[in-house]
Amino acid sequence: MTVLLNDTFLRALLRQPVDYTPVWLMRQAGRYLPEYRATRSRAGSFLQLCQNTELATEVTLQPLDRFDLDAAILFSDILTVPDAMGLGLHFVEGEGPKFAHPLQDEEAVRRLQVPDMNKLQYVFEAVKSIRLALDGRVPLIGFSGSPFTLACYMVEGGGSRDFRLLKTMMYKRPELLHHILTTNAEAVTLYLNEQIEAGAQVVQIFDTWGGILSDACFVEYDLFYLRQVISGLKRHVHGRQVPVVLFTKGGGLWLEKLAQSGADALGTDWTINLHQARERVGHQVALQGNLDPFALFGTKELIDSEVKRLLTDYGHGSGHVFNLGHGINQHTDPEQIKYLIDAVHRLSPKFHTS
Ligand code: 1CP
Fold first, then answer.
1. Which fold has domain 8-352?
2. What are phi and psi of 197, to 5 degrees?
3. What is the pTM of this model?
4. Separation of 223 CA from ligand 1 center, angstroms?
5. What residue segments make up the domains of the chain, in order of their start?
6. pLDDT reported for residue 1
């Protein structure tokens, strides 16, 4: 078994002492990197890239070869799960993901089933291959969409501006949406556990669209299923503890509820202040975030001052993982990313002296 050479990220998630604040970035592998675009065109398409073990491993490691990151994240997508359920995922150039068979009538919803995990074997193979390639450099994060966020895409048939179809189902035929969410929760639990068995050392649940819900609907349609998934996860595997990170975009108002979801850490977007967040939930969970991705379009001085502000806001001691509040924008200059990561490493040690 390989020794983990840098466990700072794992320690911060478990609020154990660290020497500096670890950093990784959502969407750290992706279109802003020219080497990613080159590998993607060799693969043929985004989906073929996800399904090719060797190339998925290559793009996962690309940002680590450029930057001093403290974690790697599996290269895949949250929509692999509905694809395995038979919804027919494809990507339309310039328009993003689309499903050929969205869940837009009762019959389609009733037919929905938890997929055979063999259909997602390519994801578990990628996890194994990335672990080997990492050779203990940093921990590997596995991930899934939340049951609710997956349902958004499954009902809409792709991305959406207002989620009209999803919300119509929620208010008109709630039992249909609950059927989708129950199926998704079971699928996501199995999917994450398989990733953990294959070698994922942390798992993150992307609840990108939780923030579109009203307070009451958030509890009924999102949080309930998040808790179900988290309580079904394997947290101790082969003698190691597997921390769970929950990122609900727009979830700042619900931090106390999210802190009781069973997750070890909460991802936060840029709308909350880390000092206030820590006061509210820092005794229960670690916090990950929360730089506005567009701060990377500012000057180096701006990046330095934002890093200082976030580190000062969180304050002294462990329990903070530096990250963006959402994924890297595809037009970001890679040099700015390098500057940010080095700034976190340069400026954070003084927040960890005993
Ligand atoms: O053209 C391309 O090359 C495809 C762009 C792309 C990439 C690089 C997509 C399509 N997915 C990904 C990879 C991806 N997706 C990762 C890889 C690991 C990394 O972070 O480096 C991860 C974790 C995701 C997760 C994901 N996919 C989320 C949750 C996180 C988030 O950004 O909110 C969501 C919502 C998706 C759906 C999706 N996949 C791709 C796109 C463009 C979208 C968004 C669609 C939309 O709502 O408009």
1. TIM Barrel (3.20.20)
2. -60, -35
3. 0.97
4. 22
5. 8-352
6. 66
